[in-house]
Design a protein that fits this description.
Layout lengths: L9 E4 L2 E4 L3 H9 L38 H6 L1 H13 L6 H37 L3 H16 L8 H15 L10 H4 L1 H10 L4 H17 L6 H6 L8 E5 L11 H13 L5 E6 L5 H12 L6 E4 H9 L5 H4 L3 E2 L5 E2 L11 E3 H9 L3 E2 L4 E2 L13 H33 L3 H5 L4 H4 L15 E6 L1 H17 L5 H9 L6 H8 L9 H17 L11 E4 L6 H6 L30 H9 L12 E4 L7 H15 L5 E6 L2 H9 L8 E3 L4 E3 L5 H9 L2 E2 L2
Parallel strand pairs: 3-4, 4-5, 8-11, 11-12, 13-14, 13-17
Antiparallel strand pairs: 1-2, 5-14, 6-7, 9-10, 15-16
Helix pairs in contact: 3-4, 4-5, 9-11, 11-12, 12-25, 15-16, 19-22, 26-27
Length: 690
Amino acid sequence: NKRHNPPSQMGMQGDIYYDQADQHIIKLLKAGLVLPPWKEKQAGGGVGGGYAQSGLGLGPSLVLLCVDYEKILKNGTLKLIEECKKYQAELKFNDAESIDKYRYYQGAILCLEGMNILAERYSKLAKEMAEKEADATRKAELLQISEICANVPMNPAKTFREAMQCFWFQFICLSPSTTLPGGRFDQYMYPYYKADLDAGRITKDEALELLCLLRFKDMELNRTSGKNNRKKNAGFAKWHNFLIGGVKADGTDATNDLSYMLLEAALITRTPHHTITLCVAKSTPMDLIMKGVECQVAGLSMPAFVSDDSYINFFTMHGVPVEIARQYAITGCLDANLPGQSRTGPVPMTIMSVVFDLMRHNGINTKNGEQAGLATGDFTQFKSFDEVWAAWEKQFKYCMDVVGERNNVELKITQEILIDPLRSILMHDGIESGKDIWRRHDIAFDNTSSVCTIGMVNVGDSLVAIKKLVFDDKKYTMKELYDALEADWVGYEDMQKDFLNAPKFGNDDPYADEIIAKCYKLFTDYVPTLRTITGGTTVPCGISITSHQPGGLLTGATPDGRKAGTLLADGTMSPMQGRDKNGPVAVMNSAMRVDQDPFQATLLNMKFDPNNLKTEEDKMKFASLIRTYLSNGGKHVQFNVVTQETLVDAHEHPENHRELLIRIAGYSAYFVQLNQEMQTEVINRNMQRI
């Protein structure tokens, strides 16, 4: 809201006016604590957009949630409209809430009727095309399409073809949203497939063709984007995440034919979207993991692999019954939510190396000279590692408090202006509640707000280097380190080599790993203490998308040997690019020293040489490596299986590698569509071998 205060008491960010009460938040946002850094309007330059909950925008955006697709699949929109009208008719306008409910039901009815109109148009068009079609086979297909669209989504789906069409109508009506998941697709679609297969109404190949066509239709969905968004999600990210495998609500294994067929469709089409994530439970057949490995070796860069136990533990530690927790879905890159029963709004990409910069400069934002953070002491005068840690912890907690406040402002605006009746009625008790999803407090888990950590590995590695070289070995003083960092290591090259060679996360070195684990424990312990206006829980998250590139641009030189403005480590469990020297098992051992269960998501990127994965024995070792990691504390791992020579050649000759797929964060992209910085980042990731 614009505040009509005297100009002398006001600042200005874009078209948003703020007074002095906002300054503690504004100053940290201008420092780049959350992407992108805020600028005064007079300074020019874009500030990015807000979709995907990236933090790369100044306002609210679409939310991380998975609707209950089965509501329309099983009931049809006509029944839901009837229910909305029933509850609407029972209202008495004796209070403000009843008026809000009336409007809510009216919006829901309009959305459902709009979906029906869309289906009727498709039905009519298909029939008109059939009348003009000379080919008998195609004519029959068009008539079948017309009949299907005349039935769904208005009525319950009766066949697999109808269920697929009904799902797609829901999917496009729930767009635009880059964080629009398919949920447990292999679970809720399997009964339709199995019934048709048993009745002889469909063959496996015909069903597989429909799954391939679904991927092509997903590729058609598009959106506009701004400069800062392109930096954040280079390669045209989508997060249309379909989770396969895992267990059912009763704990039995959930793998079925569709689990395999979704992977097969990806192998056939070789498109980056929709994303597939394979959930590995103790009961998951090795055959399904091997099918996932087959996709990786084929160069698809998917599926990602996640631990069923870790995700379930995340929910149960917050009091969610295990039967509900087992039904989680991936709703963004890797963020988990309960279909129809939880939602996450703000997920600001929060740059931990900026927090470290503020600590190093006693709270001063060196970009503009403002006192943005706390005065935590003169960096050059710290006499012990404990003093350094205390200053870091104090600065961290202050910055997280401010991020929590910022999230609450965004949540309040979301409640007021982002009314979303279609998503809301497709949540659990969405019709009965009569409330928009943002105004509800009766869902299974209120994880309404999140903080996503970027660059924590760099902070941890920096603290390790300080402890080792300044306080343990006493080779350098804090003043010498401060001066070297201020000079961006220029003139201090030998010193920089020592700091680069200090112990690093990702090498199975307890000296380094324990400090990184301590940093993450501080994060996962403190973030849930941040209060939300919904009365829910702020959850810690650990995805980066490609924010480690713009985040690095905002960060000065760091004691891990990194130069100012260069990339940060990606994800949360990935070592800094090129600094892991002891192979994939060492990387995973380091990651397993971090308690990953409290995270709503973590991310580990790895790159493997395909020449090392040619035999069945090699692939089985690879699958066993994945299973071992995810069964012993790992939450997520994903791979690029491509030679270094191919990446370098694609960088230099993109016209020869238009179909090269690369995994970035929780999505895949065509390598040649990445910006130059992100191409270089992928090239610089260490090549692993079994």
